[in-house]
Every structure is written in structure tokens, then in C-alpha cells.
Amino acid sequence: MERTYLMVKPDGVQRNLIGEIVSRFEKKGFTLVGAKLMTLSKELAETHYGEHKERPFFGELVSFITSGPVFAMVWEGENVISTARSMMGQTNPAEAAPGTIRGDYGVQVSMNVIHGSDSQASAEREISLFFNEQELNNYEKEV
Ligand code: CMP
What we know:
Elements: E1 3-8, H1 10-14, H2 18-28, E2 31-38, H3 42-48, H4 58-65, E3 70-76, H5 80-88, H6 101-105, E4 114-116, H7 120-130
Antiparallel strand pairs: 1-3, 1-4, 2-3
């Protein structure tokens, strides 16, 4: 079954949006297999966002994502990678449709509430960066 890495960013944690965001993915029918509140080290943040290293906003991105706790999650389900991306909305909240997480709660591209893996390869990489096997729960939904 497909898995993705989702992370409520420091702005979402500060604004008490963890419950709302978890609830959206639960209600959609996805399965939460791992979750933790954590503060990223600079090293972990730089590795996670390595593909943006050359971008002018890289320093700002790393300092924001390490500025306070994030809520790191692994979700499982059919097509969860692309469906979670559409539930999140466009990266820039100004362009994100109402009804999406960023469309409903975000204002700025740098503080856009949530991160989600954009492909199978990045999901695998990000899940293993943030979680070890013991932290991931394999179980079937009974309802
Ligand atoms: P995310 O999905 O976490 O992946 C990379 C992040 O870079 C992205 O969300 C945005 O929050 C951030 N980002 C993209 N463009 C800019 C920008 N122009 N200025 C600041 N941050 C940006």
C-alpha cells in the first residue's frame, strides 16, 4: 500500500491546526501509520530540503522549518501521495483553491502550513529520514 510523508509546519502547529489537518486525512479514509511532534535540527532540515539548496529562499526555508516544532506524519492508502497533494493545494497559498488546506489556512508561500511528498521516490526518502521502522505501525482498518 502506498505511503506518504506529511508534516504540519511550525506555523500550523502554532496556529493549533494539527487536529484539523489530521482530521481531514482521517475523514478522507487514509490510515495514520506514524506521527510525532519534533523540532528539526539544522542538519535534518538541510537534508530534507536538499533539492532546494541553490534557491535564494533556502536559508529562509531552513530557518523557518527549524523555528519551532513540526508534526511529522506517515499516512497510508491508495494514491495517498497525489491525493494528499491535491488536499493540500498549490504551494503558494495565494493560488491554492478554497477547500484545500493551504487555500483555507495559508497566506504566504514560506509559511504554507503543510509539507507533503511529491513523488514515490521522495515519499520513501522522507519517510526514512524522519521515522525508523519501529515508529511505523502496520495494521488494518476494521471499519
Ligand atoms: P514545501 O512543499 O515544504 O517545499 C519547499 C518549500 O519551499 C515550499 O513548501 C514553500 O514553503 C517554500 N518556498 C517555495 N517558494 C518559496 C519562496 N519564493 N520563498 C520562500 N519559501 C518558498
